[in-house]
Records
---
Amino acid sequence: MSGNQVALWYLVASVLFILALKGLSHPESARRGNLFGMIGMAIAVVVTMAIVENRVMIILAIAIGGTIGAIVSRRVEMTQMPELVAAMHSLVGMAAVLIAITAVNNPAAFGIPDPMPAGNRLELFIGTFVGAITFSGSVIAFGKLAGLGRHFRLFSSAPVVFPGQHLLNLALALVMIGFGVAFFLAPDKAWVAFGVMTAIAFVLGVLIIIPIGGADMPV
Amino acid sequence: MTEAIDPTVFYLIVFVLAVFVGYHVIWNVTPALHTPLMSVTNAISSVIIVGALLAAGPAGGDFGSIVGAVAVGLAAVNVFGGFLVTQRMLEMFRKKQPKSGEKKH
């Protein structure tokens, strides 16, 4: 399949995703919308499978992950749904971080020249810090929604606040951006800058979510 | 005009238009559907599996493809779990047929 054909199929999938969201705006069309989302996802995955080589390992990974997802989503109580969504979303964040790591490790797999040009570095910087914050923030959200506060203070549904919190968060964000800039400007793989930036992002994910009360967890 | 346009410009165009579409599609969702909406947007976000597939893609069991395969697995949990959870939530909105039994939740 040519690159252009793949891209056109991605366009079909994107349109289906938009229709999925649109369907969710009214109860009558909502279930159909969810179906559109499933079809769009199936198209995106199948088309991408056509252009990769490592299919056995990938199919195994999809089978294992998909089975876990299907079983867990069927067995959980309706009242536990929000925390399940938070928990699953943390996986998406972690996946983003892992993908960024593989891109820095082997840009050629994505068709990116090595050493990486600035545009790709910027995109990886953003991708990894958003992914890391998503991961740790979603884990905290899960803990708060699941009422796990008695096991671990950071999961408390009461807001966890401390003096100087906002200054700390701001300082950490600036340091993280600093390392991001270092990564952006570096001529080589710059693993140290990348690694520190990602580590700070994980910490920030925790810090920005813990002051939010459990009832406001849809954040 | 003879100068070619950098592909990055096209990506920026797609991004900006997507932001507008997203804003307008989401804005009118009725509050009762906010939780299923959160669930379906989570499910759609697992399209990151495409990135993971490309990461795991190159043949050979090296670091990149193993980490990529782990990422595929994580995203796959959300691909299946995400849409199924949304479906369960949306089933609560089905118009109830007159029935003597009751759905167990």
---
Amino acid sequence: MPGEIVIPNSDAPGLSAILEEIAGHPFLQGLQAEHLSLLAECAMRSHFARDEQIFRVGDPANRFYLLQKGKVALESSSHGGVKTLQCIGAGDVLGWSWLFPPYTWHFDARTMEPTEAIFLYGTRVRERCEANHDLGYEMMKRTASVLIDRLISVRRDLVARS
Amino acid sequence: MPIFNGLTEEHLEILSGAAVRTNFQAGQLIFRQGEQANRFYLIESGKVGLISEAQGETSRFAALGANEVLGWSWLFPPHAWNFTARAIVPTRAIFFHGTQVREACEADHDLGYELMKRFSAVMVQRLQSSRAELIQARREVYRLSAAAAAAQN
């Protein structure tokens, strides 16, 4: 039945709870129950206080975050000071560097407010996408869509500067 | 074409079926911001300027060359070009019919996965370099205003 979430036959109550949470995130809207289950197996809840560093440039990038609540600043720092690239919040996705080599973060991410997110293990998600091209196609389609929006946004900022 | 490296013969044939060779003179318009976007280009040789035209202001924010993909707006609605593209030098390119490629991806998820993965990889690289440029531009502004302030004292 469309829209029905089928809980996998696992006896882990945590898994069904996380399944419901990821099913609710805009990035994964429209995914089949089977695919959501595959992703739930790679997912964990996370909480951050305000002004907490989620990751730093150069760190190994092996996960991405589905933001549910709060606000995160993407920053670039050097001796010129800290520069904000972008701010993202509930409903957004944080992190693409897990997708392709060299799998390291290209910027810093710091919370501006208490933040709740689901993080997914990048390596596991990649493996599942490689093994299941239906899931892989859906994930990559959504990824491309968000990346295009980000590109448009950065270009707009770039043009505004000149 | 590097972006299609590793695709199966079958997939390459599908893509060939949607492909058309084209070339542009120096200064020739390839597509205009706001127009319907129903194709993408693989540049074989030459150079293409990406230009933003907003509120009467024109500014070139990037340039693409050989083996690079030009155009993403064909992928998702609203299917309208976000920028203007104009050949800087004589340019040869292959364009692909967007609707055909989209439909082929929907019908064959192996092809869909492989293409979306490759396109996303390119987009991540573009995003990273655009962001680096943005940081650079902001630092320049900071340096210039600091210098101006110092000069006034």
